[in-house]
Design brief:
single chain; 73 residues; 2 helices; elongated
């Protein structure tokens, strides 16, 4: 694989990963907000903490994909 094909392949791979991570983050955020409003604080405290950890993890993954996408080959 020559350099131009590698650059094309990785740029499209990162675009796909970026779109997937943004959609995943949006779905996770909507789910977390709906859990926040549907559950009481006592019942949902463990779920809300877990949802917040997943939200932070998804945000970190999206930032990593963005930084890799912006990396110059």
């Amino acid at each position: 694989m020559d350099l131009q094909n590698k650059a094309w392949f990785y740029s499209h791979l990162f675009k796909i990963c970026r779109l997937l991570s943004k959609n995943f983050l949006r779905i996770l955020e909507e789910q977390w907000i709906s859990e926040q409003t549907a559950k009481s604080a006592r019942e949902g405290s463990c779920l809300n903490s877990l949802g917040m950890y997943f939200f932070i993890l998804a945000t970190s993954c999206m930032r990593l994909v963005d930084s890799l996408y912006n990396f110059k080959l």
